[in-house]
Structure formats: C-alpha cells, structure tokens
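FAQ: What does a ligand-bound record look like?

Like this one, built around 2-OXO-4-methylpentanoic acid:
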Amino acid sequence: MLDIKITRTSAPKAKPTGKLGFGRIFTDHMFMMNYTEGIGWHDARIEPYHKLEFAPSCMVFHYGQEMFEGLKAYKGENGKCYLFRPDMNAKRTNATNDRLCIPHIPEEDFVQAVKAVVSIDKDWIPTEPGTSLYVRPFIIATDEYLGVAPSKEYLFIIILSPSGAYYASGLEPVGIWIEDEYVRAVKGGMGFAKTGGNYAASLIAQVKAHDSGYAQVLWLDGVHRKYIEEVGSMNIFFKIDGKIVTPMLNGSILPGITRNSVITLCKDWGYEVEERLVSVDELLEAQKNGKLEEVFGTGTAAVISPVGKLRFMDDVMVIGDGSIGEVSQRLYDAVTGIQTGKVEDKFGWRFEVE
Ligand code: COI
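The answer part, i.e. the structure of the complex:
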C-alpha cells in the first residue's frame, strides 16, 4: 500500500465549458512517484499539475525508454465515480515494463494511485453523454546517461484530461486506410507493448492517410504484408457472415482492454467469436459477396468506433449504409452503460472511486 503525500492546489483552474475534444485540457492535480535502483519505487505524491524540469541527458529523450497507459473515469447518474477495469491496465503496464526493462509497479499500487488522483479531481469528470475523464499513466527513464542500457531511475506520472470523443466525427463511421508500404511492428518487437515508439512509427502512414481523406491507418503484418493487425489507436473487429472476427493476439498487436471486453460481451450474447488470422484478401472477398456486414474499432479512447470505409490500394470497401451497425451500436450502449453505471456490471468491471 502506497503512502501518498497530498499537496492540493491553491489556485484551482476553471473547468472547461462547451464541446470537449480529446486530450488537450488537464486537471488541477497529478500523481508522481520515483524509482531509484537499490531503493525501489518511492515518494508517491499528488501535487498541483505543473511543468517538469529535466536534464537534457535524461535517457528517455535519447532512446525512448518509456511506457504509457490509458483508462477512463466516469460519473454515474447516481453521482458515483467509476473506473473501468483499472486492474487490467495495471497488468498490461507490467507486461509493457517487462519488454522495456522498466521495473514492475505492484498492481495494487497502480490501482491505488489512479484512484487517489481521480478522487482528488473527481469534480473534473464531465457528465455529457460520450464524455469522460481520460487517465494517462506513464513512466519515463530519467537517468542522466547517454549509454544504451536500462535506466537506473524512473518517474511514474498520472495526468488527467476531461475528454469527449476521440474522433471528431463521434459515432459517425470513419474511413480507414489499409497501409501497404510501411509496417508498425513484427513478432518479437514491441507491438504488444504500450510504448511511445510504436506510435511514433505510425505517424508517417497516418499523415499519408489523412492527406487522402482517411481518419486512421489499419496495419498489415510486417512479414507477409497480408494479415490484418490493428489500427494505431484501436483494435479492429469484423462481422463476417454473422460471426464476429478479430485478429488474434500474436505478439505484434496491442491486447486491448476494450477488445477483451467486447469479445466477452459478444460471446455472452451468443455470437460466435473467432480470434484468428484475417487476411485483407478475405475482407475483399467477403465484401464482394455481401458478407462483410460490419467493421468497428475498439479502444479506451475510441470506445466502439464504427468503420464505414476501408481502402486497400485501388479497392475501396464501403461497409453498411453510412450509419453505425447493429452490433457496434449494441456494444457501444453496453460498454458505456457498464462504464457509467447504467447497466448491470455482471463481469465486475466497474471500480468505484470514493
Ligand atoms: C487509448 O485508447 O487509451 C490509447 O492509448 C490510444 C491512444 C493512442 C489515444
């Protein structure tokens, strides 16, 4: 159990009014904790949100040893405040940390830290439909050293951002660009880990996709260049001939918490769910035969995000009639309903914050 020292701000900021975008506004407080080799994690504290000062030699600036997570806090109609599956973020943090040679954070300490900082800033949780308080935990290597080696010092920080939909289009189906030139990750690399480098690697294709009028990039596997992996900010699902199909976790895609929740819900509702290799040729074929019924992305930030168009080289697959599909809508309602306390939480996914 962490002993968290709390210093409250003496100058609370004005809360945002009007439409919230994603990830640009930050609350009054932040959590911080240091790691020093030989001592372990120490000095857990909550402080007013502030800028940080670092030596330019800090390792994170040079070799990218860092990780991050994303989860959300919601306010229910009953006024209670909830987190969605923070225990899964704690587990995934340590899986990422293992890959990046960053020391583990005990899962219960991670959850305690998230709860503590969210509790202090719970008045910042927005309540408009589709909004939430986005929670961004991250760890950076702070050793002042230019050798390539695991850092001996780290900083774990949690910041909070009242946010609306990740895509400006909200629940309008988005267009997705299947990338045929660049790759994001390969098995044995860092694809399954939540680390900034994976996202830096994705930018060039994202710019290309945006320039062509598409919202996001869908990655193909780096070896055969034919199997579907993930979209940079979400996992991807297809409804093909009545079945729910999603790429299996193979080491190069992110084990999404919303992905896991969607699989659990779909199975519970009686759908056949297949986690397996999905080739782009299979999608083109299914589309031709009228069997590609729905496509949607899943992610913490994106929640359930319908896809209305998939482009691969010279082929453009138009999915559905331009509005959200039936399963996508049902999943959106169920996931957000559980998150906000409107729907029974039969899987124990909701964590209350006092
Ligand atoms: C999230 O969904 O929380 C993520 O971390 C994706 C992020 C790149 C916006």
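Follow-up question: can I read anything off the structure? Yes, for example: The chain has two domains: 5-164, 174-340.
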